[in-house]
């Protein structure tokens, strides 16, 4: 079956984005960042407010009669959830008005971005990665990352369990996110997938930086092949091989991104060195926690 030109334009690129949203005003910055990305990509943003389901929540009543106490606790959980959902929806409407973002339940074409707020009951650890599987891009904002005190939570679950690219937006501006990306290349399949995800944004920067952090006894991958691939997309690139030095890989990576004034880091998550990462703390974990610019990752 052949596709006409209009069909091809509809099928290509990032068209659906999903992000979780809490009820606090401090979430406004993350939402504004996500809206900015959706507007740049002419995509539809689905904002999910995930709250506990009182019917499935385990309730501890101690030595007191359990049935009546448990019912009262579940009713209170539902009341608090409804109030938080209403507050979250109000924040969503406010930010959409502030950013001139059209609200729509689903996209109405490739040239006009839109956003929709939706409430879901359940556990975020399972609900959000499942929702991210049906989106072209998942976004996790700075508040979600900071509140995720156990890294094996929603951040890890989404990156490892969704199968979709994940964009982390720390406490930073995203206006120039696609202008000058740094592509962290270790030759593994995860960074290959991350690069493909970035290319799917169809954004053409002035220049991309292809970086390999060299370690002792390390044989650098062929970065010229990566540059050739980018050239076919009309993207100029600069290759750099930087020695790790006495610091960590994370330090070398983030320093290089700052030296080149990059607006985005593109890298694989839990990729080639996943088992050594688990033992020594993890390049992925430290980059997410310490980066001052957005990160696009894929496992």
Structure in words:
This protein is of the alpha/beta class and 299 residues long. It folds into two domains: 13-169, HUPs (Rossmann fold), CATH 3.40.50; 181-298, HUPs (Rossmann fold), CATH 3.40.50. It is built from eleven helices and ten strands. The protein has helices at 5-11, 28-41, 66-99, 124-132, 142-147, 154-161, 189-199, 223-232, 249-259, 274-280, 283-290; strands spanning 16-20, 44-51, 114-121, 137-141, 166-169, 181-184, 208-214, 237-243, 264-268, 295-298. A ten-stranded mixed sheet has the order 3-2-1-4-5-10-9-6-7-8, with helices on both faces. The longest helix has 34 residues, at 66-99. The radius of gyration is 21 Å and the shape is globular.
Q: How is the secondary structure organized here?
A:
Layout (H helix, E strand, L loop, with lengths): L4 H7 L4 E5 L7 H14 L2 E8 L14 H34 L14 E8 L2 H9 L4 E5 H6 L6 H8 L4 E4 L11 E4 L4 H11 L8 E7 L8 H10 L4 E7 L5 H11 L4 E5 L5 H7 L2 H8 L4 E4 L1
Parallel strand pairs: 1-2, 1-4, 2-3, 4-5, 6-7, 6-9, 7-8, 9-10
Antiparallel strand pairs: 5-10
Helix pairs in contact: 2-3, 4-6, 9-11
């Amino acid at each position: 079956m052949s596709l006409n030109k209009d069909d091809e334009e509809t099928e290509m690129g990032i068209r659906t984005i999903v992000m979780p949203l809490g009820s606090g005003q401090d979430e406004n910055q993350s939402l504004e960042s996500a809206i900015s990305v959706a507007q740049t990509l002419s995509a539809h943003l689905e904002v999910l407010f995930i709250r506990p389901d009182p019917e499935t929540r385990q309730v501890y009543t101690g030595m007191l009669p359990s049935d009546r106490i448990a019912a009262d606790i579940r009713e209170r959980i539902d009341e608090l959830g409804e109030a938080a959902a209403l507050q979250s929806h109000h924040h969503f409407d406010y930010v959409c008005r502030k950013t001139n973002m059209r609200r729509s339940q689903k996209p109405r074409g490739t040239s006009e971005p839109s956003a929709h707020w939706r409430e879901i009951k359940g556990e975020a650890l399972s609900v959000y990665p499942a929702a991210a599987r049906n989106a072209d891009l998942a976004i996790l904002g700075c508040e979600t990352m900071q509140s995720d005190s156990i890294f094996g939570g929603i951040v890890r679950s989404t990156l490892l369990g969704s199968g979709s690219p994940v964009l982390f937006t720390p406490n930073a501006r995203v206006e120039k996110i696609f202008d000058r990306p740094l592509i962290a290349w270790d030759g593994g399949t995860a960074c290959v997938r991350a690069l493909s995800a970035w290319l799917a944004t169809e954004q053409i920067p002035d220049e991309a930086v292809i970086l390999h952090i060299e370690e002792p006894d390390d044989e650098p991958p062929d970065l010229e092949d990566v540059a050739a691939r980018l050239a076919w997309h009309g993207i100029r690139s600069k290759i750099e091989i930087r020695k790790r030095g006495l610091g960590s890989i994370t330090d070398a990576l983030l320093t290089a991104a700052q030296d080149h004034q990059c607006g985005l880091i593109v890298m694989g998550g839990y990729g080639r060195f996943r088992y050594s990462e688990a033992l020594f703390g993890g390049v992925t974990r430290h980059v997410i926690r310490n980066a001052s610019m957005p990160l696009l990752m894929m496992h």
